Amino acid sequence: MVGVVAYGSVSSIKALWETRIKKSKEEEQKRTARGGAPGRLSVGAWEDRAILARLKQKLQTEDGRLILRIEQEEWKALPGCLVQLSQVQEWQIHRTGLQKIPHFIPNFQNLLVLDLSRNSITEIPKQIGELTRLKELLLSYNRIQRVPEELGGCESLERLELSMNWDLSELPDQFRNLTRLQHLDLSLNCFSVLPDCIVALPALVWLDIGGNCLQHLPEDIHRMEKLHTLWLQRNELERLPDNISRMASLDTLVLSSNRLRDIPPLMEGMSNLRSVCPRSGEPVSPCLWSVHHPQLRTLSPSILRFVNFRDNPLILDVTLPPIERTTEDDEGEDDREMFGREFMQMYIQESRKRAFAALNMHRVNQTDEDS
Question: Which UniProt keywords apply (predicted)?
């Protein structure tokens, strides 16, 4: 009887420990799956508490919005314990070496702004499309090579910045589902064409696709009815479609440093285009202005109205006439943009004169031959 009792006690103890070990392994697997670091559960729990306390120190409240702000600290990956701060409405994480957006991002349904610019992110996870309340997604200066079709599920998105990702060259057709998108920055990438899914965006008013490899613009570009600002600087455009003159809302058009040979005569009637631009010379992208001149972020868009044809191999050599001074003492600065709207109108008028002169010459020669 003693042997039976002893054997039964050993079996019970063994079963108890096997149950504990199994449970411990299951908890470890669950913890690893949600992003925690592997290791003993007790040690991992203390690590999570320490990391969470550190993250809580990064929380700030501005204008009633809870913001997680991390600047110039090394965070190559975000820990799974971050989900405990799901009430955060805005992420501002810059220059941290962050390599990926965590797969648990859908836990942050209160997120309105996701600003992860100037990191080392290589891809946008498919789970991003589950953030249906997200209004701003800022991923400039990263290493992103493609945009997932699931991004089209961010139905509230109003602002998207993907500048300076170098290898980015196309967008999925589902991109057209972003019906509330107003501001799009694709500058300094590798686009060779303007995707149709961009032309189809009904609410888009601001587009920067400068510093790419665009060789032509779509003939139906006038479908972008609400677009008022279009940055096309530093591309490879050789001509402009005539329908660009039908973009009634367009008041800022930058075409500097392209390969344009001519200006469409129909653009003469684009009265919304102005000649106002920075006094420093050639205009630069507003996203770069804001780096050196933060006050420009608050300026009305109407202040930035202009058109610019600087640094293009245009066929005709046209120069604006000097300003007539009212008095000898009048030494006011010539603040006209030398390749702006006045230049455009003068170029079109000169082109028309030469066309008429060539036509008249042809008629004269034809008459002489007939006689």
Answer: Cytoplasm, Leucine-rich repeat, Muscle protein, Repeat
For 149-208, how does the pLDDT look when each residue is reduced to its tens digit (9 = 90+)? 999 999 999 999 999 998 899 999 999 999 999 999 999 999 999 999 999 999 999 999
- Domain contains 323: no
248 in a structural domain: yes
The one-letter amino acid code at 35 reads: G
Average pLDDT over residues 328-345: 66
For the chain, the average pLDDT equals 83
What is the CATH classification number for the domain harbouring 239? 3.80.10.10
Could you tell me the strand order of the sheet in which 113-115 lies?
59-62, 65-71, 90-94, 113-115, 136-138, 159-161, 183-185, 206-208, 229-231, 252-254, 306-308
Structural domain that includes position 169: 51-278+302-317
Domain count, the chain: 1
- Which pair of tokens denotes residue 293? 């001149």
Residue 284 has pLDDT above 90, yes or no: no
Q: What does the pLDDT look like over 77-135, one tens digit per residue? A: 999 999 999 999 999 999 999 999 999 999 999 999 999 999 999 999 999 999 999 99
Based on its alpha-carbon atoms, the radius of gyration of the chain, rounded to whole angstroms, reads 30
Q: What is the pLDDT of residues 25-55, one digit of tens each?
A: 666 565 555 544 444 445 567 888 899 999 9
**Domain presence at residue 284:** no
**pTM of model > 0.90:** no
Calculate the CA 87 to chain-centre distance. Answer: 26
